[in-house]
Specification:
The protein is α/β, with parallel strands linked by helices. The protein folds into two domains: 256 residues, Aldehyde Dehydrogenase, Chain A, domain 1 (3-Layer(aba) Sandwich); 188 residues, Aldehyde Dehydrogenase, Chain A, domain 2 (3-Layer(aba) Sandwich). The protein contains 15 helices and 19 strands. Pfam families: Aldedh. GO terms for molecular function: aldehyde dehydrogenase [NAD(P)+] activity; succinate-semialdehyde dehydrogenase (NAD+) activity.
Amino acid sequence: MPIATVNPANGETLETFEAMDEDELERRLELAEATFRTYRRSAFAERARLLHGAADLLDADLDDIARTMTTEMGKPIKQARAEAAKCAKAMRWYADHAAELLADEEPAETDVKDSGASRVRVRYRPIGPVLAVMPWNFPLWQVVRFAAPALMAGNVGLLKHASNVPQTALYLEDLFHRAGFPEGCFQTLLIGSGAVDDVLRDERVRAATLTGSEPAGRAVASTAGEMIKKTVLELGGSDPFVVMPSADIDRAARIAVTARVQNNGQSCIAAKRFIVHADVYDAFAERFVAGMAALRTGDPMDEGTDVGPLASEQGRKDLEELVEDARRSGAEVLCGGERPDGPGWFYPPTVLAGIHRDMRIHREEAFGPVATLYRAGDLDEAVLIANDSPFGLSSNVWTRDEAEVDRFVRDLEAGGVFVNGMTASHPAFPFGGVKRSGYGRELSGHGIREFCNITTVWQGA
């Protein structure tokens, strides 16, 4: 895949970039290692000052970088601005909290004495250059949620971004440079996916984080396992959105629309499978389908657009194949389901009902504005349907019954359970999944410690 900016709203190639050659890649790896040797000794206060500076610059650049993201991958411009603002918020959160999150821990005095020590501390030390293999769907946020904690921990970052968002990738390197971070603290590697394996095998790279597809995750995890390097993986998701009879049906249906089509439906944590109790199925389905059908699809630069184009032509083909497979197998198309005429990689908001286990869309992630509706006879069946997926990223539950809440929290196989609201990430809360959605956590204290050397310091009398 060429490294290029291609506008998904019309298919026009705007700019193409040459991949780095071996000499330039070697120079950057050496720079990362050399920078880490000195940056790791910097004080938290200095790192925080630099990261606050980056957040201030991002605020000033907000409109420009939002337009760049929309141009490169098609998200509605208002969502692009919100993404940039969220990144600045996360930078400030880590700048303000990293010192306390990584403060030395003192074990219980009785345990210290029992060990024969006069003092024991647990210290969090930076691990080294970390390779980040990042996707195009949230081209700024996915990177910042890695970079902010990594830089505050004293690590340095090497970004291999998706090949269709090169301008956003280069902006990120420039942003940290303008903020005053030492050269080599954060570098963008303009390389193809075929070069990732060699970079990960390099001894100067100590760990890796990847957000992306299952095949990409398997490849990185396999190499990292062979090289005995730490990884964090955030892969696909097919999140359930469960609606029980006690729910506020009007609000649940309204939020369900947003939860499905956020980022043009191209979000791992977007709700995709809507599992509704039989007692309220008809009422919810009527409202949900009407809401999906009413969305405005069009130019992502238009402030009134709700759903823009898919990011790539192949992405649209993949989505169409899932819908057609379901249709051939008996699914009912309640709205959408037909590719519109004209330029660009648009696909309409679509709702499918009558889903069964033999359909591909039941097992695979639909990465676009396509929702599937399921009817559940009771809570037990709702849990069974929700867990009948290879993925386990997050989940949504709508109920006012606390006993049902406790049951869902206990039994849903997911990294998050959002009750009476849609899944969203926040820098203070851990984010990640189970099963084929990956392992490890990003954000919060859990995320910043993923790439730290957790060191026991034992001192005798």
